[in-house]
Amino acid sequence: MNLRRAAIGLLCLTVVVSLGFILVSCSSLEQTVVSPPIIEGASFVGNQACYYCHTNYVRTFAASPHARIHFEGAKMAGQSGCESCHGPGSLHIQVGGGSGKFIINPGKDPAVCFTCHLETHAEFNLPQHHPVIEGKMNCVQCHDPHGMDIMKPARGLAMARLNESCAQCHREQTKPHVFEHEAMRDGCVTCHSPHGSINAKLLVDRDNNLCLKCHAQTPGPGVASGQIFIGHEDHTDKLRMGGCYASGCHTAVHGSDIDRRLFY
Ligand code: HEC
Ligand code: HEC
Ligand code: HEC
Ligand code: HEC
Ligand code: HEC
Ligand code: HEC
Ligand code: HEC
């Protein structure tokens, strides 16, 4: 996937260099399609039409990536960001608003998100995934659709780091430790795919490959000896015992209170 992204990035660069003006939309050329949601008989009215009744949402919304969405050909005043998720709002407003009145609520069903975020949809269909499609979890537990930062959970505290959005539900892995694993500083997503993965425990890589991304495996001092060193320690015999964390060795991958080497 990373390779594909890099390729898309390269493609973007080429396009931007040659055309010079489609920078914003290009960042997600292949992953995000913008297809307007449909509500039978309703038309798009623009964000300002929601202001009178949902003032706070419209106020804070300007910084959201969705605020930039425009539907080509839609008859409307101003931006159509609100309606990119909630569908065209004319009928909702005509009847004076109200719950379940001609408006889509993606908090109840994220299907509308998937019409544009195809890649995210595919991720939630992988063998290991957060149970969003099953209706046990929701996008808004990790993404604030209305606020300044869509990468934070909605109604959350002022969360400083991505890790803290996982902390609401995963206390054990997010608590502080005497011996921290520095890999945690880059966030949970260095090792876990937040939506879904083909690997157990939502891991981005399998087995030792996960750890060897950062901890290089080097030949010992006497190359002929066939020794393998990891982190300045001879691992030749240890590796025969099994995987880095699955063998009962570095089982405290999220940090340890007992041993610098991440043992329990
Ligand atoms: C990225 C998609 C997205 C965009 C864009 C968006 N919303 Fe929402 N909206 C949601 C989701 C998801 C929920 C459900 C939130 C929940 O269940 O906590 C929601 C809920 C709401 C609700 C119901 C709140 C409640 O308490 O029941 C209102 C009103 C609302 N949005 C208005 C707006 C307005 C106005 C805008 C534009 C300024 C907007 N939304 C833009 C996704 C979006
Ligand atoms: C005339 C006032 C009014 C206007 C204008 C209005 N709404 Fe609403 N809306 C309401 C009321 C009242 C509710 C029900 C109470 C609530 O959830 O806040 C509601 C509820 C909602 C909900 C929750 C629906 C549900 O089933 O849970 C969403 C989403 C929403 N509005 C989006 C919008 C969007 C987007 C716009 C602009 C296109 C808009 N509204 C314009 C009055 C209005
Ligand atoms: C009408 C199409 C459309 C719908 C529906 C839609 N999005 Fe988006 N979304 C976009 C576009 C376009 C962007 C900005 C371009 C990009 O970065 O992909 C975006 C950006 C995002 C981002 C930030 C991506 C980034 O890399 O910064 C998140 C998170 C997101 N959307 C979540 C949601 C959620 C959650 C829903 C449903 C509640 C939703 N979207 C519904 C089109 C849509
Ligand atoms: C368990 C928390 C969680 C849930 C639930 C979740 N996301 Fe995400 N999402 C994340 C995190 C964390 C990232 C940032 C990933 C990164 O930086 O590598 C992300 C990134 C994204 C992006 C940017 C593109 C990408 O994949 O990096 C989009 C779009 C997105 N999410 C959409 C959604 C939609 C739509 C839903 C609901 C159907 C959803 N997410 C549910 C945590 C979550
Ligand atoms: C709203 C609660 C919630 C949030 C927020 C949340 N998760 Fe989860 N997580 C769950 C649930 C529910 C499961 C599924 C548990 C199960 O199937 O037994 C799960 C499963 C997992 C698993 C797999 C566990 C296993 O035993 O297979 C990992 C890894 C994980 N989450 C990491 C994360 C990360 C990283 C984040 C932040 C980006 C996050 N979670 C945010 C609720 C949450
Ligand atoms: C250095 C890589 C790495 C980082 C960073 C990381 N994890 Fe993990 N995580 C793992 C590995 C490896 C496992 C599987 C351990 C096993 O199978 O014994 C795991 C397992 C889990 C599980 C399943 C728990 C269980 O008992 O099986 C959850 C939940 C989880 N991690 C959440 C998180 C959260 C939340 C963060 C961020 C605060 C995070 N992880 C950061 C590597 C990491
Ligand atoms: C994102 C990079 C990254 C990943 C992935 C990663 N680590 Fe680390 N790890 C570090 C950094 C940085 C340190 C601190 C500097 C050092 O000791 O190399 C560290 C330290 C350690 C230490 C303590 C070393 C010492 O002597 O103090 C152990 C043990 C360890 N990691 C094991 C693992 C295991 C097991 C995995 C796979 C589950 C893993 N690491 C994955 C970056 C990473």
Task: Please describe what this structure looks like.
The chain has 264 residues and is mainly α. The protein folds into three domains: 1-29; 31-156, no CATH class; 177-264, no CATH class. The chain is 28% helix and 5% strand. The strands form two sheets. It has a three-stranded antiparallel beta sheet with strand order 3-4-5, with no helix packed on it. It has a two-stranded antiparallel ribbon with strand order 1-2. It starts with a helix and ends in a 30-residue tail after the last strand. The model is unreliable at 1-30 (pLDDT under 50). It binds heme C (HEC) (7 copies).
Topology:
Blueprint: H1 2-19, H2 23-26, H3 48-51, H4 55-61, H5 81-86, H6 90-94, H7 111-116, H8 118-124, E1 128-129, H9 162-167, H10 171-174, E2 196-197, H11 207-212, E3 217-219, E4 228-230, E5 233-234
Antiparallel strand pairs: 1-2, 3-4, 4-5
This protein binds heme C (HEC) (7 copies).
In the sheet with the most strands, the strands line up as: 3-4-5
Small-molecule components bound: heme C
Overall strand count: 5
- Residue windows where pLDDT falls under 50 for at least 5 positions: 1-30
Structural class: mainly alpha
Rg over alpha carbons:
24 Å
Distance between the termini: 34 Å
What characterizes the major β-sheet?
A: 3 strands, antiparallel
Overall pLDDT score? 82
Shape: elongated
The proportion of residues forming helix, as a percent range, comes to 25-40%
**What's the helix-strand series?**
HHHHHHHHEHHEHEEE
Strand content: under 5%
Please work out how many helical segments DSSP would assign. Answer: 11
| Tally of individual domains | 3
